[in-house]
Design brief:
heterodimer, A: globular, B: Alpha-Beta Plaits, 2 domains, 7 helices
Chain lengths: 145, 249
């Protein structure tokens, strides 16, 4: 009985330890720009609804400066590949795929949309990294977490 | 209670009311009596209210061997035509020949941005639609690729994407299984460039055969040109009131 209790306790300790959780959960890459003021949880839950709302604003009403533009998402959440260019949706490292592969939800967006930013959009995000020592420090802190 | 009329006159739809809700002030004067005032224009970065974007093409200035507008469109929107019947073609050069005299004419033909577009009439999902500023577009999010619009179009202006597409221009998303056509460089218009890729290319060659502008703005060059010189619509017999007009054909 004592043996059983010890093994159960050990298993529980293993389950809550961060290293074990990291192996189970998707490893979501840190974005390049400033974090969302609403928080990551909000965006993880609501991004499909926000994206479809903004897409209708853009396509039908011609509003280009929208809250959830897929172009901005892709630029800010770009992941650098081995060739120093942003990876496409073909790569399992693509930000969208890290989560979508994990939950087995198919993404249709990139049948039409480009899954990586164009040069101009990509470099537009980058200066925010090296902009000031504070932004750089903040970014490094976010990565290390 | 005075409600100033909006740009669209008395047509205040539910959508407009919700859109302009932020700019609407409501004052309660007494129980049961409410004073409402509507704010001015819709947000400045949206489409231009009351506009009708159009093109004026002078076939007399369009040389037969020039296809600068076609290649500019292809580059701007990332489509490629290698001569196959199934390849996309947003804009093409057409040569007209008058049988009795033999006079030949070369001109670019693209989506004519009808005021009453047959492609919108036949679309079963509402994907083919006309924006408030007169541009006829395909909303690929709702397009199911049935191609009724391609059959309905009198100008053969629409193409179907038969192959998977990668590395699209971010300003022109396009993909397999949807229909596409000239969108009058809607991203450039929304950006405020005031021109299209084909018109820019035509002006760069020095031919100046194409002009872009707001047909509803009496001060615009295009409105002045169409009110001064003779211009025609293609297939005017259909009575579709086209946004693209031609001279010297």
């Amino acid at each position: 009985m004592k043996k059983l209790l010890v093994s159960v306790l050990m298993l529980a300790a293993l389950l809550v330890s961060p290293s074990f959780a990291q192996g189970l959960l998707p490893n979501i890459p840190t974005a390049l720009g400033e974090p969302h003021p609403e928080g990551n949880e909000y965006w993880r839950i609501n991004h499909p609804a926000l994206l479809s709302h903004s897409r209708d604003q853009t396509v039908i009403d011609g509003l280009r400066d929208v809250d959830a533009s897929i172009k901005t998402c892709v630029a800010c959440h770009a992941v650098e590949g081995p060739d120093a260019a942003p990876v496409t949706i073909e790569s399992p490292d693509h930000t969208c795929r890290t989560c979508h592969d994990f939950v087995a939800v198919k993404i249709d967006c990139f049948q039409c949309h480009n899954s990586r930013p164009e040069e101009a959009d990509w470099s537009a995000v980058l200066p925010s990294l090296g902009g000031t020592p504070d932004t750089l420090r903040a970014y490094l802190e976010r990565i290390s977490q | 209670m005075i409600i100033p009329t909006t740009e669209k006159g008395a047509e205040i739809s539910r959508r407009d009311l919700l859109k302009k809700g932020g700019a609407m002030a409501t004052v309660t004067l007494a129980p049961g009596v409410t004073l409402m005032a509507f704010g001015g224009k819709a947000s400045a970065d949206g489409l231009k209210q009351g506009a009708r974007w159009g093109l004026l093409i002078d076939a007399g200035k369009c040389p037969e061997d020039c296809s600068a507008c076609v290649s500019a469109c292809s580059t701007e929107h990332g489509w490629e035509n290698n001569g196959l019947d199934t390849d996309p073609q947003w804009i093409r050069k057409v040569t007209l020949r008058e049988k009795s005299t033999g006079r030949e004419n070369s001109l670019p033909v693209m989506c004519q941005h009808c005021d009453e577009p047959p492609c919108v009439d036949v679309c079963p999902t509402g994907a083919s639609f006309k924006r408030e500023d007169g541009i006829v577009l395909v909303n690929r999010h709702t397009c199911i690729g049935c191609r009724y619009c391609m059959m309905a179009c009198p100008f053969k202006a629409r193409s179907f994407v038969h192959e998977p597409v990668t590395d699209q221009r971010t300003t022109t998303p396009r993909g397999n299984g949807t229909v596409e056509g000239c969108n009058m460089c809607v991203h450039k218009i929304d950006r405020g460039d005031g021109t299209t890729a084909c018109v820019e290319a035509c002006q760069a060659t020095g031919n100046n055969a194409m002009m872009f502008g707001d047909l509803n703005d009496p001060e615009s060059d295009i409105a002045k040109a169409v009110s001064t010189y003779a211009s025609v619509e293609l297939r005017a017999d259909l009575g579709l009131n086209l946004g693209v007009r031609y001279q010297n054909i």
